[in-house]
Write a structure and sequence with these properties.
Radius of gyration: 24 Å
Shape: globular
Structural class: mainly alpha
Oligomer: single chain
Distance between the termini: 10 Å
Helix content: over 70%
Largest sheet: none
CATH superfamily of the largest domain: MetI-like
CATH architecture of the largest domain: Orthogonal Bundle
Length: 313
């Protein structure tokens, strides 16, 4: 186990380096000069020159990358050109919001996807199975932004059940926090629930036809015990791996959802930073998101290693 984990950690070092080069390089392709934007409408040449020098915009691209990655390795992601606030502080403020949204969305996806996949596999070929597959097709095909707008119109505007937008920290009012987060979490977790349902169904279909399951039935065990105790434990091995990867997708895919529901998380932060040409914020947020996704990949590998006895032996 330790050797396996060390190998995975060693592989992540060049991966993160390559990702950081891509982040920094592609960022420079954005049109516009941040120094000109910050100089205001008058665009005083002296002010532009000062801003350009202060943020190293006058240095060659490789030099700027070395300066940026050197500071990042020490926990300094730079300073927001727009607000003069350290990017690391912005990350610490916004990351918990996106993590909460992602965790709630993932919980909803599990509560819907796993039971639906189990029932669909057990009732294969019946109307229940067709209905579950129809739900999965709907979940995968429905755009998040459309579903979010429709839910706001129905739940908030017409029925007045939940607030249409905004965010309340859980420390201030937990009940109001859940009211503001339940709709965006459902929108975000909807597609993931469909994916988990399809994978759970596929894995259960394979396991239910295995020899040891037929033996369990022959021994007189109830269908509930056969499905939950013998089949589900083995079928969930690939679903565990998928779940870790899908959670990373939730974090990176929350941009539109946070914009629609006005949630001050990573998604809204990076969209505002792109529009404001705030290079430091964009680079810092994308680097943290990519690092989290790589870390979740490692967690998926470790979970699969622990869940599969054949790998441990």
């Amino acid at each position: 186990m330790l050797a396996f984990l060390v190998r995975r950690l060693v592989i992540t070092i060049p991966t993160i380096f390559f990702v950081s080069v891509l982040i920094f390089g592609l960022q420079q392709l954005l049109p516009g000069n941040p120094a000109v934007v910050l100089a205001g409408e008058e665009q005083d040449p002296a002010v532009i020159a000062y801003i350009t020098h202060k943020y190293h915009l006058d240095k060659p691209l490789p030099v700027r990358y070395v300066l940026w990655i050197g500071d990042a390795l020490h926990g300094d992601l730079g300073e927001s050109i727009r607000t003069r606030q350290p990017v690391s502080e912005l990350v610490l403020q916004k990351l918990p919001v996106t993590l909460e949204l992602g965790a709630l969305a993932f919980l909803i996806a599990l509560l819907i996807g796993v039971p639906a996949g189990i029932v669909s596999a057990v009732k294969s070929g019946t109307a229940v199975d067709y209905g579950a597959n129809l739900f999965a097709l709907w979940g995968i095909s429905t755009p998040n932004f459309w579903l979010g707008i429709m839910l706001i119109l129905l739940i908030s505007v017409e029925l007045h059940w939940l607030p249409a937008s905004g965010y309340v920290p859980p420390g201030d009012d937990l009940a109001q926090n859940l009211k503001t987060m339940i709709m965006p979490a459902f929108v975000l977790g909807n597609a993931v629930a469909a994916v988990i349902m399809r994978h759970t169904r596929s894995a259960m279909m394979q396991v239910l036809g295995a020899d040891y399951v037929r033996t369990a039935r022959a021994k007189g065990l109830t269908e509930r015990a056969v499905v939950l105790r013998h089949s589900l434990r083995n079928a969930l091995i690939p679903v565990i791996t998928l779940g870790a990867l899908e959670f990373g997708q939730l974090l990176s895919g929350a941009v539109l959802t946070e914009q629609i529901f006005t949630i001050p998380g990573f998604g809204k932060l990076i969209v505002d930073a792109v529009f404001n040409r705030d290079f430091a914020v964009v680079q810092g947020v994308v680097l943290v998101t990519a690092t989290l996704y790589i870390f979740l990949n490692i967690c998926a590998d470790v979970a699969y290693f622990l869940a599969n006895p054949r790998l441990r032996s």
